[in-house]
Amino acid sequence: MSDTFTMDSPQPRLLDQTGQGVIGTPMNRPDGPRKVSGQACYTADAVTEGVAHGVLVRSTISRGRVTGMDLASVMSIDGVIDVITDPRMIRNPAQGMAGEAPVQPGDAVHYHGQPIALVVAESFEAARDAAQRLTVHYETEEASVTPEGTSASETDDPETAGDFDAAWQAAEVKVDLNFTTPSQAAAAMEPHAAIAEWKDNSVTVHSSLQMIRFNKKELADTLGIDPSQVRILAPFVGGGFGSKLGLGPEAVAAAIASQRLGRPVRVVMTRQNVFDCVLRRSETAQRVRLGATQDGRITAISHDDTVSNLDGEGFSEPVSQASQFLYGADGLSFTQTVARIAATPAGSVRAPGEAVGMLGLEAAMDELAERLGMDPVELRLKNLPDKHPMDGREYSTRRLADCLREGAENFGWAQRGAAGMRREGDWMIGMGMASAARSSMLVKSASRVRLTGDRAVVETDMTDIGTGTYAILAQITAEMLGLSPERVEVRLGDSDLPGASGSGGSFGANSAGSSTFLAARKIRRRIADLLGCAEDDLTLQGGRARGLNRDMALADLVQEELEAEATIKAGKTAESHFSSGFGAHFAEVAVNEWTGEVRVRRMLSVMSMGRILNEKTARSQALGGMIWGIGAALTEEMQNDQRDGHVVTRDLANYHVPSHADVPGDMQVLFLEERDDWANPIQTKGIGELGISGAGAAVLNAIAHATGHRVYDFPALPDRVIAAMEVEI
Amino acid sequence: MRPFDYVRATAPDDAALVSGQIIAGGTNLLDLMKIQVMAPETLVDITRIDGLSDITTEGDGLRIGALVTNTALAQDARVRAGWPLLSRAILAGASAQIRNKATTGGNLLQRTRCPYFYDTSQPCNKRRPGDGCAAKGGEGRMLALFGTSEHCLAAHPSDMAVALTALRAEVEIRTPHGDLRRIPVQQLYHAPSDRPDRDTVLEAGDLITAVILPAPLVGSRQGYRKVRDRASYAFALVSVAGSIQMEGDMISRAHLAYGSVAPHPWTDGAVAKMLEGQKASDALFARVADALVPDRAPHPDTEYKRRLLRRTFIATLRQLTGLADTSGTDIARTQS
Amino acid sequence: MKTTLTVNGTQHEVGHDPRRTLLDTLRDDLGLTGTKKGCDHGQCGACTVLLNGERVNSCLCLTAMHDGDEITTIEGIGAPERLSALQRAFVERDGFQCGYCTPGQIMSATAMLKEIAEGSPSYVSDDLDAPKLSDGEMAERMSGNLCRCSAYPLIREAIAMAAEVKE
């Protein structure tokens, strides 16, 4: 059994004392060769004999009830095996870390696009054909499908610190701005998929999921069976970005169908299914009010927002999250309204809150700087609070000021000049910047490390969704045990292995990295025992153990397998200290004065995010986030029909994730050295979401600088830029 | 896809052409069949018909076989030299992968990308006449500005067809009786009227065999300007194709066509009349643009296209007449 | 119906429904699951393969229409122990994250390098007759391959690195 380590006090920096020298290095991903050769096995790639193919049927009404289906019409289609409806089917994917069944609507329909049945056939073609041809009868009900149109909305009490109203009244310089952001899709390249097979009253489900420990419970609860009867496998996940945090309808449908038919069933969502029923990021309407003194000290901050979700979903996009801790003021106030609408439910998509909230906040900061006649970097530097403005916690570490200064220096910010002045032919050139912030967490996580000779195995149900888990867990273990990383095998994504945090909220490396570290530290102690020295006297390096005048090869010393499991959870340090990644984004854009097209020419982000475990995969995460920022700023907009709420942009031709051509080659990332002793025993912070947080705002602020006009409704599509420019030609 | 019979035609007079749905590149047809927007009972593969895959010289122009791929056409040395507008327009469309499959004939026949046409849960007169048009009152960013009817507001998405229209190309059509006829590209398309399901004038069994490209305007400057929501791999919001002949600073001939603003490549004869014989100037272009753009848009969501078309028209004309300073970040290209 | 395909140098006769796409034939009939289905509509590029040497979206190919054709998939480029220069460069430069779009990116890049070498132009070529291997050219030419992890700059670094090795 694994005992649990609770993070109650700062921990020594053991990873800085070990001698292997692999931690932090830009090691290639061990899973790389398989990925570049097509050998990495994603869910739909799992070879299963006798598999039947399932395709989900969507509802085509916004609210009501399914009263019947003309089964006969599709059962006669060659190859069709079954049309399955079942009270255990789920309405939509589980929210992250739910650990229990999502809403099981029975015959009720709550949004257009809801999965209402599964057609199973001998071939994918037959199943898709029948799923599309199935005639469904409904009883329809009135539904509100837009935040503006619904009467059902809930407004929280304001979260406050100090007296915002008084501070706002007294402020010498004010901005009071409204912003909107549309719904966005995670749009991972791998569509949500599952293959289920029952044996001896237990079900094994391959499914593309991020949080296996929770997903196992979700599936068991959904099916009404014991978690011990469920095994989930996800060794490779083709991108998640939050959309695979929770168990999805495809996995439930596959499990039910497989049970009923007594054979394995594969359900891969069509891309349209993915847009229809996978949790979206909510649209937001934001009002940001910033008040300051003439000399640029911010005195009042308010960030109110309206987001939406479907009834019964506990999640609401935490829009003002970063606004609550980034800058200080005498009075702060934050109010959220959640509109209940009959549309594809909302959930976590990469950096929920910051990803859209920082577009509003940081654009407002830019405009405040303009109003004050102050440099935007200076304004931010002047307003960094000593403590968390809302709850008084200390910052664990915060190198935001360094990021801002280093970024300005490296980007050539001093050459920025006045707005609307720089031109190259028809293109107006501008620079913009924004702060980056994304709070960092530690979530309960377990790992097992086994060592035989000089070969180690790491086992945990943690996932690698592209983040680099395979690489960093190998590096942590190799560093701790003095091994070359090639001697460490990392096994992930299997619910039979110790339960990790899962991949989400940028806490994966912090949490699963720490539990792996702790398990490896136990092995170190055992090695010290074998060698007959104290742990402090032990040096593990290059496959050898040294201590107290003894120097032995691990291959000789560790003849019998050593096994250790460890669990970590958050403790008192999370109450006393606030941990967050910080950074500064800088962007240069060109805006076509005629067509309003925007091209990002270069970007630089400087980030401090605790210890970097792998410089290469960390950089990839940062870059990915920055490019998501470009998408949010320029191209991504999910449209829902205002009458029935259906997703209009339900494919990748209509929902525009950035393409190669939207991203310049000159995308730079600088990491500032940092150790967060209060965060966890490996001194890390989350990385996966800091890159996006604020990145889009830097692009949008650069547009404002290029043109002298600001867009308030994002993304800045060509027509919106033209409208903002208001230039009579 | 619904089940279908697959038939391989080997000659243009194959009887199957009359009753079946022709497939060549299939890049749009299969896309639509997978979501059952189209559900032919018989699919007739014409890719093995000989003699439709060549580009040959015809007088001072070119005869482009209907099966010539978008890639082959765009990179043909003669096209690059004499009709760079066509190369650029093709290269502005889709992706390299799709252009390798898509054919000249098929590209002309691609269907609208209106999302309501693509969603079988929504009524659409183009899918089923008389069903109604869900795009009216729906999300209409990609809809047309000109030439719509009360039954359909959809825009034609082709880039290539816009270039061919500006270049005064003709389509060669073989009837089931073996007759060949030629019509200008823009006459290939039906106005939506009350039968928006009929995209073109083609009758059952008609086969596009070639596109005929006449000689370019001597000494013309040609360009294709495409504005879209993403820098590449996206359909146009608005596009302008132009071939301009100058005498000194005076415009002698102006052949222009506009994309993604109508159910077919849009042209406006009055524009050429206003431009020809005039000295290129910003004032002239602004005046002509005002005449080109309609007073109102048929859908509130395409109101922006009035402004965008106007601006894109002016920007393109400025470039093609040498008024523009082209020293800048020429990421969105027009000039050849 | 039956279709004969030569895939990665090996000839196969596959029996199939006329509706079968080349993508599904490769994955489900031939077990070549390296080619990925991301959208099934030619909108993402994950299914890119070489068809008679040219890159295409295999999701938009009917198997029935390719009797006698030669297909190259990622499995034909290089296995983990025998990676091609391009594959090695992707690993070295971290030109991927989740890896799902990666086979498509690599197939596409393989063809793209050949296209540029042959002088085939792109929308952003300054001179339609003499395209260069620049980052901007690569960005435009690779735009048919979406990568949601957004490894784009690193993908292009990897391609440039492999191109240099070749030269």
From TrEMBL, chain A:
SMART domains: Ald_Xan_dh_C
Pfam families per the UniProt record, alphabetical: Ald_Xan_dh_C (PF01315), MoCoBD_1 (PF02738), MoCoBD_2 (PF20256)
InterPro entries (UniProt xref): Ald_Oxase/Xan_DH_a/b (IPR000674), Ald_Oxase/Xan_DH_a/b_sf (IPR036856), Ald_Oxase/xanthine_DH-like (IPR016208), AldOxase/xan_DH_MoCoBD1 (IPR008274), AldOxase/xan_DH_MoCoBD2 (IPR046867), AldOxase/xan_DH_Mopterin-bd_sf (IPR037165)
Domain Aldehyde oxidase/xanthine dehydrogenase a/b hammerhead: 37-142
Region (Disordered): 1-36, 138-161
UniProt cross-references to Gene3D superfamilies, sorted A to Z: Aldehyde oxidase/xanthine dehydrogenase, a/b hammerhead, Aldehyde oxidase/xanthine dehydrogenase, molybdopterin binding domain
GO molecular function, one term: oxidoreductase activity
Entry protein name: Xanthine dehydrogenase, molybdenum binding subunit apoprotein
Source organism per UniProt: Puniceibacterium sediminis
Source organism phylogeny: Bacteria, Pseudomonadati, Pseudomonadota, Alphaproteobacteria, Rhodobacterales
UniProtKB/TrEMBL annotation, chain B:
Residue ranges of coiled coil: none
Classification via SUPFAM superfamilies: CO dehydrogenase flavoprotein C-terminal domain-like, FAD-binding/transporter-associated domain-like
One Pfam assignment: FAD_binding_5
InterPro entries: CO_DH_flav_C, CO_DH_flav_C_dom_sf, Diverse_Substr_Oxidored, FAD-bd_PCMH, FAD-bd_PCMH-like_sf, FAD-bd_PCMH_sub1, FAD-bd_PCMH_sub2, Mopterin_DH_FAD-bd
Domain of life assignment: Bacteria
GO molecular function: FAD binding; oxidoreductase activity
All residue ranges annotated as the FAD-binding PCMH-type domain in the record: 1-218
The entry's keywords: FAD, Flavoprotein
Name of the protein in question: Xanthine dehydrogenase YagS FAD-binding subunit
TrEMBL record, chain C:
Keyword Transit peptide recorded: no
Domain of life assignment: Bacteria
GO CC annotations, alphabetized: periplasmic space
Keywords assigned by UniProt, alphabetized: 2Fe-2S, Iron, Iron-sulfur, Metal-binding, Oxidoreductase
CDD domains per UniProt: fer2
Pfam short name (any one): Fer2
Entry keyword annotation includes rRNA-binding: no
GO molecular function, one term: 2 iron, 2 sulfur cluster binding
Domain 2Fe-2S ferredoxin-type: 1-77
InterPro entries linked to this entry: 2Fe-2S-bd, 2Fe-2S-bd_dom_sf, 2Fe-2S_ferredoxin-like_sf, 2Fe-2S_ferredoxin-type, 2Fe2S_fd_BS, Aldehyde_Oxdr_Iron-Sulfur, Beta-grasp_dom_sf
Protein name in the entry: Xanthine dehydrogenase YagT iron-sulfur-binding subunit
